[in-house]
Amino acid sequence: MRHFIIDCDTAEDDVLSLYLLLKNNIDVVALTIVEGNILYDQEIKNALWALEQVSREIPVYPGANKPLIKNYMTVEKVHGKGGIGDILVEPKRLKAKEKHAALAIIDLASKYAGELEFLAISPLTNLALAYLLDNSIIKKIKKVWIMGGAVFGIGNITPVAEFNVWVDPDAAKIVFNAGFDITMVPWDVIINYPVTDEEWNLIKNMRTKMSELYVSMYSHYRKYSSTIQKINGHPHPDAITTAIAIDERVAIRKEKRFVVIDNTDNITRGMTLVDRFDADTSWSDKPNAEIVYEINKKRFMEKIYDLLNWF
Ligand code: BDR
Ligand code: CA
């Protein structure tokens, strides 16, 4: 059995990612919550609420509620006031843990040493903090899956920066330089595989509890992505990353590359510069991440349909 921590800034695609892990029999040992999409308290509530919807009790550890150094902004305009649309959900039974997420990561890395996988569909503040507190987690965490950055320079929060890396580029720099075994799934790759009108209608007609939840969670985001972001539907940044983590065959083409993060506080903040050609230039170094370039959309959507047929 595979053991995962899922690190969330809990909006719709984070919730769906959690459900994908559970549906695919991954042992989710913890959810860690980090600053990002919406107000921090609501991110925690969403995580607890999401677990209640599938009757699961998994520890939820709040952690960093702001980036290491910089200021950031939440993006309710993208995901709705509550991150899963405008609805503000309240968990009924579950409560968050007291322990800080960074400490939980360190403890769980020891408990599952050599086996633990970290799924970061979120800014990297919690993982960077854990690493700064205890460098030995590099050897204990088997794999780090990251939804973040861009490989061709097409961002979403700025023209060149993807949101997760932009929120805390200092944390991202620490994590990318630390020596983890990283797979990075870039924003400007996943936007090539949005959920089309045909697929959206098919999902609407499924009429399972999960598909109805899906439609209610994604309606706000879909409107934003298809109008403002001019995407042909809504993309699944976090869910595609999660599907690749579950089943590497969802990624068709991957290359090991050197990635450097622009953590300066200027207009290129959060940009990920990927040495795509492995050029022997002064700024480049040996590969520090595996970059996903192409996705098997059919295989990914099979996982989505399978999940939406759960109940
Ligand atoms: C990423 O940023 C967040 O808005 C999403 O949850 C996703 O993790 C996309 O840039
Ligand atoms: Ca996310």
Automatic annotation (TrEMBL):
<dbReference type="GO" id="GO:0050263">
    <property type="term" value="F:ribosylpyrimidine nucleosidase activity"/>
</dbReference>
<dbReference type="GO" id="GO:0008477">
    <property type="term" value="F:purine nucleosidase activity"/>
</dbReference>
<dbReference type="InterPro" id="IPR023186">
    <property type="entry name" value="IUNH"/>
</dbReference>
<keyword id="KW-0326">Glycosidase</keyword>
<dbReference type="GO" id="GO:0005829">
    <property type="term" value="C:cytosol"/>
</dbReference>
<keyword id="KW-0378">Hydrolase</keyword>
<dbReference type="GO" id="GO:0006152">
    <property type="term" value="P:purine nucleoside catabolic process"/>
</dbReference>
<protein>
    <submittedName>
        <fullName>Pyrimidine-specific ribonucleoside hydrolase</fullName>
        <ecNumber>3.2.2.8</ecNumber>
    </submittedName>
</protein>
<dbReference type="Pfam" id="PF01156">
    <property type="entry name" value="IU_nuc_hydro"/>
</dbReference>
<feature type="domain" description="Inosine/uridine-preferring nucleoside hydrolase">
    <location>
        <begin position="5"/>
        <end position="302"/>
    </location>
</feature>
<dbReference type="InterPro" id="IPR001910">
    <property type="entry name" value="Inosine/uridine_hydrolase_dom"/>
</dbReference>
